[in-house]
Amino acid sequence: MRSRTRRSRGVARTYSDERDLSLSSSRHVSTADGFGHMVGSAVPQGHDATVIWLHGLGDTGQGWADTAQALQPALPTTLFLYPTAPNQRVTCNGGKSMPSWFDIASLDHTLFKPEPPGFVESASYVQGLVRKQLDAGIAPERIVLVGFSQGGAVALHAALHCQLRLGGVLMLSSFLASSLKPRSKSGTIVECSPRVDFFHGEADSLVPISWAREGRKELEQAGVKTSFRSYPRLQHAACLEEMDDVMN
Q: How far lies 9's CA from each of 13, 58, 63, 167, 225, in Å?
């Protein structure tokens, strides 16, 4: 088994090159397998943290890239990465092809079935991005995953099924899209689970806030630490108050 070693504050740390970050070795997806263009901030001087930010349905990484400019003054040593989902047909949009992390059969959340087509593959892709940051010398606790809507669902699954505890998951207008299965017969989902913070508009009609609250409840029942912030009159979008909370 090959490994890479980094030094942080004088302490040697070794991370495996095995696919131990993947959901399963047979489902590992490389960063070139159908996924779109990734944009990001310039690698900052003293780079010691990374934020990987996933967009929502029909959007691209570029659509959220302006958040780096807004957040980087407070996080000067943080690299921001904005990947783009692959183009695929989306059932609820009449089969139209668009950037999507997974297929959505219906806009009625009560009909949602966990782990839809493309979901696990996208989560594996995100874990590959995490692995690249580890190989670049970034400690796992200094890597944070952020996602809007379906992007948050993918980010959460990637983090919960990672063999290393990441720095956190920020869920923007998002939801739990997978079952909380343990990693092994002897393990539990919380062994390496980071804190999960929800940010949601109270007027969201596409992803009702009740759906997000249900997901938070499931996570807490499984032992995952969470927080929840809501915003009056905010629909399926982001707002300045929310971005201030994200930064803090």
A: 10, 42, 36, 18, 28
Residues near 95 by beta carbon (within 8 Å), at least 6 away in sequence: 89
Phi, psi at 158, each rounded to 5°: -60, -40
Q: What is the pLDDT of residues 60-71, one digit of tens each?
A: 999 999 999 999
pLDDT tens per residue, range 69-96 = 999 999 999 999 999 999 999 999 999 9
DSSP code at position 101? S
pTM of the model: 0.86
Instruction: Pick the closest to residue 86 from 64, 54, 112 (CA basis).
Output: 54
At residue 209, the 3 state secondary structure works out as helix
Residues found in the chain: 248
Both structure tokens of 245: 């909370």
Q: Which residues pair with 15 in a beta bridge?
A: 4
CA atoms of 158 and 144, how far apart (whole Å):
11
Distance of CA 132 to the CA centre of its chain: 15
Residues carrying an active site annotation: 149, 204, 236
- CA 91 to each of CA 30, 103, 105, 168: distance values in angstroms, whole numbers, following the listed order: 25, 6, 5, 31
Q: Are 66 and 40 in contact (CB under 8 A)?
A: no
